[in-house]
Every structure is written in C-alpha cells, then in structure tokens.
Amino acid sequence: MIETMREPWLVLPTYNERENIEELIGAVRQMLPAAAHVLIVDDNSPDGTGEVADRLAAENENVSVLHRPRKDGLGPAYVAGFRRALAEGAGLILEMDSDFSHEPAYLPRLLDAARTADLVIGSRYVVGGGVGDWGALRRAISRGGSLYARLALGVGVRDLTGGFKCFRREVLEAIDLDTVQSRGYAFQVELTYRAIQHGFTVVEVPIVFRDRRHGTSKMDRSIVAEAVWRVPLLRLESRDGGNGRRRRATPKSRRYTF
Ligand SMILES: Nc1nc2c(ncn2[C@@H]2O[C@H](COP(=O)(O)OP(=O)(O)OP(=O)(O)O)[C@@H](O)[C@H]2O)c(=O)[nH]1
Ligand SMILES: [Mg+2]
Prior knowledge:
two-stranded parallel ribbon, 8-stranded mixed sheet, alpha/beta, binds magnesium ion
C-alpha cells in the first residue's frame, strides 16, 4: 500500500471542552504529519466549544468540525466522525479524548505501530503503561472493568475500555457501524471485539493516562452500567452473527511490550 493511501484522520469528540480544545489542536498538529486531518465532533456543547472549534477550523486548513444537535454519547459521536473520515478517504483513523488524558506525544507511537497492525490500542495495562493520578477507587473500577470485559469476551487484549486508538480504514469498513449501539465505555469494547472477530491484528502500545487538564468528566453510572450489561451480550450476538452462524473466533491479537 502506498503511503498517501494511509492519510491519517484524528477524530476528537467534544462535550464542554472549551478550555482544552484550542491547546489540544495545537499540540496534536505538532505530533501528526502535516497532511493529517483533525475532525472535531461537537454535540452542541453549552460551554461554546463548537464556536471555538469553528474558529480553529477557519484558521487551520486541516481542521474541520462536525456539529451534532445534542449530547448523544461518545459512541454515536465517534460513529458519525468515522463515517465522515471514511467518506473523505482517510487511510488511518485515530481517536482520543479531548481533555489531555491521552497525551498527544503518544500519537507517533500509535501511527508507527499501525504500519504492522490493523488496530492499535494505547494501553494502560501493558508493561510501560499506567494511570498517572487516579485514586484507588478509580483504578479499581478501570482495572476491574477491563478484566471483566476480557473474561466475558475471552480475548487477550488488556485495555478494552480505553479510547486512544488507531484503526486502519479496512477495520472500520468491515465493522458494520450501523449496528453499533454502545454509547459509553462499552463502545470501545465493542469496536475492539468486532475487530478481533473479523480476524484483524490488534496491538497494544503502552500509554500513561493522565487526569483531564480542565473541565469535568462526563462519565456517570449509566455509562458504567451499560458496559456491565452490554459486554456479555456482544459475545452472544457474535455467536450467531445475526444469522445463526458463528463468526471467525480466532483472535490474531498480541501484546506489544517495549
Ligand atoms: N461529542 C461528544 N463527546 C463526548 C460525549 N461524552 C463525552 N464526550 C467526549 O469524550 C471524551 C471522553 O469523555 P470524558 O468526560 O473525558 O470521560 P472520561 O475520559 O471517561 O472521564 P474522565 O477521565 O473523568 O475525564 C471527552 O473528549 C469528552 O468531551 C458526548 O456525548 N458527545
Ligand atoms: Mg476524560
């Protein structure tokens, strides 16, 4: 595949990220190739993130904004962003939080690993990865959540709930985005699981996750609850593949340890 076909698009979902978004755009553009595109997907943030994003798009040729009418969850925002990126010819599609929890400095590492993997996951739970400033409870919830999902789905990936990823376009084309229903953390689990089910190569590269720089978390109990009930269903659904047949079940995933 020639390199120009692999043009990266970074999709950034925002809901009330006014204080982070401008600095973040500057930081990610320094870390990405000059031809990379950045797509902000804003759900009509009441704090005016959308207006800041419009200004940034006017100032930067490779930045654009997808405005959605109301807060509808992370999953649908990403699906809309992925569709736009695919339609525009993206070769690689990156996703990350817009609050500096995912450090832009790791972007080259993800892109590099995407040369040999179909899906790259920035992982807190491989050697060299971690969580910076979390308390014991948050650590336990996150680790427990990833372990629960790993056991429920029977896959080897360590960080299933994280949202710092790089997909080759073929992965998102193969995953039927129309049928993805997860909205919160379950969305991250669902996409990785579907990629594995399709036989794509999954690689984890270590990242250290930091607390958001400004603003407040959108995580709530309903997002955690959704992950708890939906994750086991993902496995059940994949057994019949919607038509009574079992899909390919041999994951080609492996772990990356620097
Ligand atoms: N467009 C859109 N973006 C969202 C929505 N919910 C969350 N986000 C964005 O998704 C990213 C992750 O959400 P966060 O609130 O940081 O949730 P979190 O990372 O699980 O929680 P913290 O670690 O406490 O920040 C951030 O960039 C949010 O602005 C949504 O409904 N729509
Ligand atoms: Mg966050």
